[in-house]
TrEMBL record:
Its cofactor is Zn(2+). GO terms for molecular function: aminopeptidase activity; metal ion binding; metalloexopeptidase activity. InterPro entries: M28_fam, Peptidase_M28. Its EC number is 3.4.-.-. Residues 166-367 form the Peptidase M28 domain. One of its GO terms (biological process) is proteolysis. Residues 1-20 form the signal peptide. This is Peptide hydrolase.
Length: 378
């Protein structure tokens, strides 16, 4: 997730501070890695003109807490082949009896096992060798869950960098709805804000917690016989920290293919309990209003803790990529934003600061989201 619990600094002030310290040499090395640094097109808001900048400029933005999308590869949303189609979003949960066994079989055991190994990589930066290794390890865990279930597939979504995104898909039982799908997502990459490529970045909360939250929801659904009416997919995105790169690639590909995304739920940072107590944060800005209202109802029905409403700003996680191409998306986070984990993007983002029981509450909501919206209800 691209926000920091630090006082926001202007880019010029940040540059002055950094240039005065020992990290200046590292930034200079990064700038001069080639005689002509690659330029990237970066956007700060829906109505803000994008700007061209180097990777080093992007890193400075990141350290300053500026939220952005790197739209170099997708400067404009693609034209939909079915632009007249509008999904129906229900107002209330209806399939409690169907959801109950999946929720009842959720456990923290596998979340602990997966997150412990996942955070052992030096970092999961999307361009690093560690990030490439971590995604290959993660997809094997997902494939192990799906092994032997013919209606479930797991595949790589390749990018121009080595860390691929991962897509696990439940085929729908109603072939008339085969082009409609529900998506539950998280991002798999992590970053050290000072040394992105090689600095230690366990990323336990950001977004290891979201990664294992949806992993456990997926595991319970697979192993307890979930067979949806319309297809349901679980996504683990690459390159979120660099400007939502992986999710932009996937969302644009789906849009160009004419697929109908009914709803997308992002899980980014689900493990930290803030000072104000245990809640599920529901983001209310830059999201679909009807889907967010339904998400509140899902928390009321399936979680054992209340929700709190919060805002995150422009492009703060991968739900923004789906919103940009016109699909309904929503976002849950561990707390209100001002009460969330202060250790993200550092060496201190470690498991010991997190609660697996808290993550499990988000798994419950993810299961409810997948099951409820897999049914056609209009």
């Amino acid at each position: 997730m691209k926000f920091l619990s630090l006082s926001l600094l202007s880019i010029s002030a940040l540059s002055a501070c950094v240039s005065a310290g020992p990290l200046a040499a590292i930034d200079q090395l990064r700038v001069f890695r080639s005689e002509e640094p690659e330029l990237r097109l970066v956007q700060y808001g829906d109505d803000t003109p994008p700007k061209w900048m180097t990777e080093s400029d992007k890193e400075a933005l990141f350290r300053a807490g500026v939220k952005f999308m790197d739209i170099t590869d997708y400067p404009n949303p693609p034209v939909s082949l079915n632009s007249a189609w509008q999904p129906f979003i229900p107002a209330e949960a209806k399939y409690q009896d169907e959801v109950a066994p999946f929720v009842g079989n959720l456990t923290t055991e596998y979340m602990k096992e997966v997150l412990t190994e996942f955070t052992s990589f030096r970092n999961r930066y999307y361009k690093s060798s560690y990030g490439a290794k971590s995604c290959r390890w993660l997809i094997q865990q997902i494939r192990d869950v799906a092994d032997g279930f013919d209606h479930v597939s797991v595949k790589e979504f390749e990018h121009s960098w080595d860390q691929f995104s991962i897509i696990a898909r439940f085929e729908g039982s109603n072939k008339d709805l085969d082009n409609e799908l529900v998506i539950v997502g998280a991002h798999q990459d992590s970053v050290n804000m000072w040394l992105p490529s090689f600095g230690r970045s366990p990323g336990a909360d950001d977004d290891g917690s979201g990664t294992v939250t949806i992993f456990e929801a997926f595991r319970s659904l697979v192993h307890n016989g979930f067979k949806p009416e319309r297809p349901v997919e679980f996504h683990w995105y690459s390159g979120e920290e660099a400007g939502l790169l992986g999710s932009q690639a996937v969302s644009n590909a789906y849009k160009e293919d004419g697929r109908h995304v009914v709803a997308m739920l992002q899980n980014d940072m689900t493990g930290y309990i803030g000072a104000n107590g245990e809640v599920i944060g529901i983001v209310t800005d830059h999201v679909d209003e009807k889907l967010t209202d339904f998400l509140k109802n899902l928390v009321d029905n399936y979680a054992g803790i209340p929700y709190t409403l919060t805002k995150c700003g422009y492009a703060c996680s991968d739900h923004a990529s789906w919103r940009k191409v016109g699909f309904p998306s929503a976002f849950t986070i561990e707390s209100a934003f001002d009460d969330s984990n202060h250790f993200i993007h550092t060496t201190g983002d470690t498991i010991d600061k997190l609660s697996f029981d808290h993550m499990k509450e988000f798994s419950k909501v993810a299961v409810g989201f997948a099951v409820e919206l897999s049914h056609k209800r209009d």
